[in-house]
Amino acid sequence: MSVASVLVLGSSSKWRRQQLEEQGYTFEAMAADIDERAVTVDGDEDGRGVSDPSKLTLAIANAKADALVPKCPPNSFLITSDQVVHYKGTIREKPETPEMCKEYLRSYETVPATTVTAVVVTNVATGERFQQVDIASQQFKPIPEAVMDEVIEGGKGDVMYCCGGFMIDHPKLQPYLGERKGSEDSILGMPLAVLESLLDKAGYKKE
């Protein structure tokens, strides 16, 4: 009798957990205790000046896998991922202040926010890894100041905890969504078609 495979989501993100739950996945969740700022590529000191953010997100997603594989059951499949927002050649982190968040939101009226999301699936039993990067973008229409204030909530709103300082699933921001390229789930943090493809390649069979 074969032992059922265990799916592990290596993330503390409530949004990624929600995405997998909505797709009917049964999984365990654990967060990788790593310093993402210490992960560098191309010799860049902080990893944020690289010309290709795909390299950075893949490096971080693999670093998360390195940290979590020893903690996973031997019959498990581990999902790790990382996302950054790329804007005009720079990588945007979470906004540090409400005003910075407003500046970010205003800037997306003219140039879209581009999300770069790396997904890595590790077959813990074999050690094999399968990885892919998905890119999407979202532009916004002009957002009234009052709406921004409602969304930011004095620095306590969920948008303050999102890289790039924006959300596409916030009810108050949805009326101001502009042109989108790529999938909604990719922008939310987990490109589901990519995930399903990688899980299949790794040998995971959904219950």
From TrEMBL:
Presence of the UniProt keyword Transmembrane in the record: no
Pfam hit, one: Maf
GO MF annotation terms: nucleoside triphosphate diphosphatase activity
Coiled-coil stretches: none
Keyword Plastid in annotation: no
InterPro entries: ITPase-like_fam (IPR029001), Maf-like (IPR003697)
Key words of the record: Hydrolase
UniProt xrefs under HAMAP family: Maf
Protein name (Swiss-Prot/TrEMBL): Maf-like protein
Lineage, broadest ranks: Eukaryota, Choanoflagellata, Craspedida, Salpingoecidae, Salpingoeca
